[in-house]
Amino acid sequence: MIQISNVSKVYGRLTAVADVSFDVQPGQVVGLLGPNGAGKTTTIRMITGFLPPSGGRIRVCGHDTIDASIAARRQLGYLPESAPLYPEMRVKDYLSFRAKLFGMRWSDRKKAIIRAGDKCKLLEVMHRRIGHLSKGFRQRVGLASAILHDPPVLILDEPSNGLDPAQIRETRTLIRDLAMNRTVLVSSHILPEVERTCDRVVIIARGRIRADGAPQDLLSRMLRQVPAKHSVELYIETRADPENGNRSELDRIAARLKGLRGVASIAREPIHGEKPEGTGQVAEWVRLALLPEPTHPDLREAIARTLSIHGVLYRELRRQAPTLEQLFMRVIEQDGAPEAAEGGTRA
Amino acid sequence: MRRALTIAMREYSSFFRLPLGWVVIALFMCLSAVFFTQRTLVPGNPAEMRDFFGVWWGLLLFVSPAISMRLISDELRSGTIEPMLTSPVGEWTIILGKYIAACCFLVTMMLPTLAFVAVIAWLSQPDFGAIGTGYLGLLMLGMLYLAVGTLASTLTSSQTLAFLGTLFVLLVLDLAPARLAAQAPEPWSSLLFKLSPSIRVADFARGLIDTSTVAFFLLGSFWFIALASVVLQSRRWR
Known about the structure:
The complex is a heterodimer of chains A (347) and B (238). Chain A is of the alpha/beta class and 347 residues long. Chain A is 33% helix and 28% strand. Chain A has a 6-stranded mixed beta sheet, with helices on both faces. In chain A, strands 5-4-1-2-15 form a 5-stranded antiparallel beta sheet. The longest helix of chain A has 14 residues, at 106-119. In chain A, 38% of the residues are buried. Chain B is mainly α and 238 residues long. Chain B has one domain (2-236). Chain B has 12 helices and no strands. The longest helix of chain B is centred in the middle third of the chain and has 28 residues, at 128-155.
């Protein structure tokens, strides 16, 4: 449905997007993920025809966005970042205006407005002025205007930007609902949104694609490179023992765990909400974090066995699979620090 | 054309949804009423509106930029230009729609002034032909000024800059040819006189309709809105 081939965008000496290529298949929900200034909005603006690419080609439903711009735009429903609308207009009038721009006839227009309004739960505010609506409702008006003409391709630029958690959840549900019979490309820097909504993620940073695939595939690929951290919470005596060379029980257990085959490093981590270290208690709950070597991705059994042998009470032993956020941060860190300013790399 | 009219209708109605439209109409009417009572409705004066049209042409210099300043600037500032330019509508259609809306607003603004004609007609027997051509001249001049304003509005997202830019260009367009013509030798002098909108529009107030003058205003307006369309299109390529 969307074919992006070697697309780049250059502003003077600034390269905002460099040689980006990816396809979006029919029915896919693809998340375009990246930090601020990564080139997400520029890429989306090129797909929608708002900006022409400096190089490369973009096709939407087979129509070139430059040579057959109007035909390509007919296939698109687009919600720009922060949903720009006319605040002085009533919701119904705005939707009617948008439907007319897409050349819809009166009878179709009426049905389309009701359908989009119902889908985006706007029927109760149809006669209210857009400027009087909450940000969540305004976002829904933008979404309704994007689906009015029932486009096969829906492009949403940061649809959850500036919304509160409840509104974010509502928007996510709405996007999932809209994605049932459409191809959707959604850009975001809110990771849970992408993780829960998208079949596929394209991570973009400094104008280049850094990772592309299904969230689970990307995570398992990452797991092979970076093993999952293990954490264990032990009930242990923390005070130094003079009879044992001033080493506490904690030091001894930590040394034994460190000695296990495949353990690369071990460190103590604070337990959120519990008493900190040095409260004078004889024994307390302590959390240790173990990082395994890539050759030993799962150490849970070895850790459990060691703790049982030494009679150490523990209440949690967890292998923390990497999240999309960790993957995202890893890609960004590999790429260099996120840029503070808008834009990409210097050409 | 249907889409241009859709844009025109939205824009026209937005003039009345915002205070700006009402303020412009109120100011125009207040100033018109003051000049009408002070200069036209004077005992002994002929039953004509020639002086009055002269005042209106001067008022148009300030009213036209106020009407046109938000046409595209506001879309650029608020970001609504993005959904507009990503819908299946060309730049020319957008500019034409906005321009039609501005011209319709100008006509709406002039409609209440027919009350002044009614007052003159009630008190005396004016030459309705001259009044009609005077109104036509007012419309032609307004159309040209609004086209200049539309162009200025595509160049900046600041309404204030669009207003000041339009005012500056209109003053230059109006005053420069007349000033330079007085000092320039022939045939430059007569050519410069013909380029001054305020000199050309004076014919209308006298009851004359010169086709070359009509063509001057229509082509001038077309040239400026075509240029505005090119400027809007060029924004995509920057």
